[in-house]
Amino acid sequence: MPKIDDIIARARTENRTYLLEHESKTIIQTYKLPVTQFKIAETEDEAVKAADTIGYPVVLKILSPDVIHKSDVGGVIVNVKDADAVREGYQSIISNVKKHVGKARIRGIFVEEFAPAGVEVIIGAIKDPQFGPALMFGLGGIFVEVLKDVSFRVAPITKYDAQEMLQEIKGYPILTGVRGQEPRDTGALVDILLKVSKLVIDYPAINQLDLNPVFSYSKGAKCVDARIILEESN
Questions:
Q1: Which of 37, 36, 204 is nearest to 125 (CA)?
Q2: Are 123 and 135 in contact (CB under 8 A)?
Q3: Average pLDDT, whole number, for the chain?
Q4: Of 128 and 158, the one with more pLDDT
Q5: At 153, which helix (H) or strand (E)?
Q6: DSSP state of 16
Q7: pTM
Q8: Which CATH architecture has domain 37-114?
Q9: Which helix (H) or strand (E) holds 216?
């Protein structure tokens, strides 16, 4: 898959261990994970054209190798509903980033599909020095931040392993439907875990991978945000 090799090589050339969001999403898209539609815009007009193509509402995010925590510098605007709001948001984000990170290299604006809310889950992988890549699954939001309600498996995993990972967390009943809520498509989450397992085995240069949040729906799932960090080069 030369596209992935090219992305990793470019990051190495630029002395980056972290990939930009569009690079991370391109990689997981290559492995047929369900990801939000996205386009890169270098001008206001391109941003409007991208939003028109994707369909409103959209999310706008700064695209810069010097800005990792986009929200902290006013680099994210969600639920942008029309072309005028895209233009206004484009200008606002560029202005915010220049104010907070004066020397930031701005490559454009990331225009992304605004995904409907679902049950938030987190799916990730981290390379353990002894055991190699290990996968993580948990419910998102407060469940992972406060309750640490997650499960782990060393990659590669089987379908049975992935199903067990879902069932091991305390919040599993939320996925199966409680208090009149619709059950979630656990099969879609199992599929994502299996594909992430294959990805991190195929590309040992990946040190960390986070899909957070993944919105889980009654039918299907959507990876809303993706982050990949590479191993330090020798």
A1: 204
A2: yes
A3: 93
A4: 158
A5: strand 150-154
A6: -
A7: 0.91
A8: 2-Layer Sandwich (3.30)
A9: strand 206-216
Question: Is the previous residue joined to 183 through a cis bond, with omega within 30 degrees of 0?
Answer: no
- Position 149 scores a pLDDT of 87
Q: Is the pLDDT of residue 83 over 60?
A: yes
What is the residue extent of each domain of the chain? 37-114, 119-230
Q: Is the pLDDT of residue 153 over 80?
A: yes
Given a cut of 60, is residue 2 above it in pLDDT? no
Across 85-110, average pLDDT: 94
Angle CA(143)–CA(198)–CA(61) in degrees, nearest 5?
55
Helix (H) or strand (E) holding 92: helix 83-100
Tell me, yes or no, if the two domains 37-114 and 119-230 fold the same way.
Answer: no
The contacts of residue 37 (CB under 8 Å, 6+ apart) are 54, 112, 113
Give Cα 167 to chain centroid, integer Å: 23
Domain 119-230 is of which CATH architecture? 2-Layer Sandwich (3.30)
How far apart, in whole angstroms, are the C-alpha atoms of residue 91 and residue 105? 16
Residue type, 214: V
In 101-185, which residue ranges form alpha helices assigned H by DSSP?
142-145, 159-168, 172-176
Residue that has been written with the tokens 């999310």 in this structure: 59
Cβ-based neighbour number of residue 55 at 10 Å? 10
Q: Is the pLDDT of residue 138 over 70?
A: yes
Contact 228, 125 (CB under 8 A): no
Contact yes or no for 40/108 (Cβ under 8 A): yes
Longest dimension (CA), the chain: 54
